[in-house]
Amino acid sequence: EFVRYPQNAVVNLGQSSFTLSCLAKSTQKNKLHYKWTLNGHDVRSQPDGHDQTGPSLVLHNVRHGDYGWYQCIVSDPVNTEEKVVSPKAYVIQPFLGSFQNHPESGIVRVGESVVLSCLTGRSVPPARVYWEKDGIIFKSGTQKSETTKIIGQPLITETNMTLKITATDVVSGEYICVAENNMTGDIYRSDPGSIQSAGEI
Fold this sequence. Notes:
Layout: E1 2-4, E2 9-10, E3 17-21, E4 23-24, E5 33-38, E6 41-42, E7 50-53, E8 56-60, E9 68-75, E10 83-85, E11 89-92, E12 95-96, E13 106-108, E14 113-119, E15 123-124, E16 128-133, E17 136-137, E18 142-149, E19 157-166, E20 173-180, E21 187-189, E22 193-197
Parallel strand pairs: 2-11, 13-22
Antiparallel strand pairs: 1-4, 3-8, 5-6, 5-9, 7-8, 9-10, 9-11, 12-15, 14-19, 16-17, 16-20, 18-19, 20-21, 20-22
């Protein structure tokens, strides 16, 4: 049975090395045999690609072909019919997509409030999301961020960001939602939503 399963991971393209590992135990004294598969196919050791040593699999200079789902298969060399297979562990390249929904323009009257919202593109890992007003980070108002995982897509998320502002803490201007991926350095900005005070119209 397994003591440690391989874990999902986000790995940059070209990363010099990355290690997947698993560990199993047996009631027998026989030394266990470990094998790895990628997308259901055996992974073979290569001088410049993969290095498999017991329960560890090292990926060298990560390539596009290294992304996918891995499984660790452990068997008893004496009784090869007995083997255990780990759950899938996904190795995914970080990325950030463009915004799916953008803030809408609106008018706010004294004593009333307006809510702006945006929905980021899909991201791995989760994006950092914040608001800008007229090109400057905006920290006022009531801000709420909700990140959800995409069903059937391990590690992939999208974030819904809302901003509630009232006539007492806002002046007219353009509000933009910003998403950043700290692994890739990618930054996306939504289309602007223009807010006007009723007294300025």
